[in-house]
Design a protein that fits this description.
The chain has helices at residues 23-46, 53-60, 64-70, 74-97, 103-123, 125-134, 138-162, 168-191, 194-212. By secondary structure, it is an all-alpha fold. It has two domains: 23-72, Homeodomain-like (Arc Repressor Mutant, subunit A, Orthogonal Bundle), CATH 1.10.10; 78-218, Orthogonal Bundle (Tetracycline Repressor, domain 2), CATH 1.10.357. The chain is elongated. Residues 1-23 and 216-230 have low confidence and may be disordered.
């Protein structure tokens, strides 16, 4: 909140003070980070189903009342963690696809992204647990769907740069569906034995690549040159 400027006289000159960090805001951010770090550790060891607000408060060394000032319930904690994972994923997707200009680059960038997601799903128990838990929470499921739409738009725009004569709407629908099915495939793959999970992952990669690497299947209908809406 900005303060009103001090009135000046003829002898006084207005001045601006350098911005100063608000100690209360800094402590508040640090406390929030500590809460999320504790929640991450608990999810990694016990899973989100066993996550209790009372235990988060105890391990964060704050009162339960203070915890509720930051997060009203367990879903809010999980949602914040999911949003952070999503933001990092989006940065990776943008970085991988921004330079795509040809079919080979598109294929390589998409394959690399899938491999990164698979590695994260295998190595990050927190992300794995959050992915699984999203299916039972309507708000978290809506968050996942929206993130798939965002990722799908990034993928569709790269596809249209490579195949500019394609039907933009068909490309957008295919990219959104591919990304959402990719999320489901990751959950399925990590729930199976490692060897079978890897086979399922490779099968999805082959099928999805075959779908959007065939521009002849996407070049009919109106709106061929329409860009995908950001």
């Amino acid at each position: 909140m900005s303060l009103p400027k001090k009135a000046t006289t003829g002898r006084e000159q207005p001045f601006s003070e350098p911005p100063r960090r608000n100690p209360m805001q800094q402590r508040s951010r640090e406390r929030q980070e500590r809460i999320l770090a504790v929640a991450t550790q608990l999810i990694a060891t016990k899973g989100s189903d066993s996550l209790k607000m009372s235990e988060i408060a105890e391990r964060s060394e704050i009162s339960i009342g203070s915890l509720y000032q930051y997060f009203p319930d367990k879903s809010a904690v999980i949602r914040t963690l999911a949003e952070r994972f999503n933001a990092e994923s989006r940065r990776c997707i943008e970085a991988a696809l921004v330079a795509v200009v040809d079919a080979q680059g598109l294929s390589e960038a998409y394959s690399d992204l899938l491999e990164q997601y698979y590695d994260i799903a295998q190595a990050e128990p927190v992300m794995r647990d959050i992915w699984s838990g999203m299916q039972a929470d309507k708000q978290l499921l809506a968050l996942e769907l929206e993130e798939s739409r965002v990722a799908g738009r990034l993928l569709a725009n790269a596809m249209l740069r490579v195949f500019p004569g394609s039907d933009a709407r068909q490309v957008a629908d295919a990219a959104f569906l591919i990304w959402q099915l990719g999320e489901a495939t990751m959950r399925l793959a990590i729930s199976c034995a490692p060897e079978e999970g890897r086979r399922l992952f490779e099968a999805f990669k082959r099928m999805s690549l075959a779908e959007f690497m065939k521009p002849a299947n996407m070049n009919t209908g109106p709106g061929k040159a329409d860009p995908v809406v950001e």
